Every structure is written in structure tokens, then in C-alpha cells.
Amino acid sequence: MQPLNHTEQVVTLQAIRARCAHELHRVTLFAPALCHVRRGSKVVQFADYHEVARADSLIVFPAGKEISIANRPAQGEYASDIIYIPQRFLSQFRARYPAPFTAEPAVKQASLCVPFDAHTRQMWDSLLNTLNDNAPQQLQEHQLQGVLLALQLAGNAGLLLRERHDPVSAQVQGLIALAPAHDWQVAEMAAHLHMGSSTLRRRLAAEGQHFRHLLENARMANALYEVQSSGRSIGEIAYRNGYACASRFAARFLQHFGLSPRALRGAMRDG
Fold it and tell me: Name one GO cellular component term (predicted).
């Protein structure tokens, strides 16, 4: 498993395997991501959109959005690869390859699932090879640039390249993700961001967010990654994400995602 830090400036690969169908609600990714389902299908619900991704499509996950997913095996197996993209890299890509003046079709802007055409597939396979081979970071980013360029040329990169409109929330999420076990308080977070507590609360409210909501989402996002991709015990994952009590953590995980950590691991490992 590659350790995931949502503020790390490196490309990260997560491989998901499951034997049983399962659903997860209120999933938030704090780094933009691309996902390809190699076997089975993934149902994605985002805002008013409900889509099904299979091997002939690529899922574009913008950062900071809350989604619901359902992983459905085919002949007893579900397999997908998720690549997390550093925000820094997207900013550099936008500067190097400005969006064309012609507007992309609205349906492509709104859809999370985009066609996995021949050029995108070729670039994607090359990127996976460099990640699986632990190639130097420069080579990984070179291949990632090819994937993004293929998506942009096909008119399928709109959601991924769109700037976030909640910059303070993004900064708060990033700091929490650095140390999810830390006992974060508003005053300390405000000091990190060089503003007063009341200013932080006011700016988060203007973005439609609350500090405690962001804290729980960041912890749950990291916990979900560890439950899916690590061999750590549930108790250790709880502790690493700010919960001293494993049973309380499991209850919050169930309440948040609609599935307990033990049930999720069972779906991934059992036949």
C-alpha cells in the first residue's frame, strides 16, 4: 500500500479489490482523482447525477465533493485503480495547457464518467506501469501529463481542471490530513492560516462549511483509505484518525459511510 497524504505533492495509486458488492455513502476525496474499473462496475452518485462506470469509461473525481458509490463485482470479482493527483500538478498543467476557447459540451462538464478512448487508455496504461514500477517522480508526472492532455483534447477534463471555489475549506482539509489524529481546535487551525477564530468560522460559513464537519470528513476519508488498502487493525486505524475507542470509531464509520469497517473488509476479502 502506498501511504496516502492528501496534501502530499506526489502521484498516488490505490488498487481496490472486492469479492462482494458494497455501498459507501458520503465519500469525500481531498485530492482530485481518476478511477478506472477493470472488472465489475462502479455506481457513482454525485449531486443529481447517477452514473455507472465500467471498463469502457474513466471516472473523474473533483476534489472536495461528497459522493456515494457502489462497487459491483462481475463473476465474483471487482477491481479498480484510483490515481490521486496533486493540486500543485493540476495548477501547473492548467498554466501549461490553457483550456481551449471553445466551450466543452455541457454533458461532458457535468458527467463524472467519461469515455476511455484509445489515446486516454494508452496514456493511462503507461502511467500505471510507471507507478507500479516505482519509477522516478518525474517520469510518473510526465505520464500523468499525457493522461490529462488526452482527456483535455477529447473534451473530458472540465471537472478535473476546474478551480475549487472553497479555498479556505481546502486549506483546512489539507492541514487536518497532515495529522488526522491530532486534537484539532478552531483556534489552532486559525493560527496556522494566519487569521482569527471568528474570521475562520465566518469564511468557512461563506463556503457552506463548518470546522467540525471538515474535521470528521478528513478523518473518515483517511480511515476509509486505510481500511481498504492497509493491513492495520481497526483499533490502530481508529487511533491514527483521532479516535481513542475502536468501537466508537466503528460506529462513526458506519454512520458516515453506511457500512462498518469490518463489513467493508469482509466485502473485499470474502468470496
Answer: cytosol
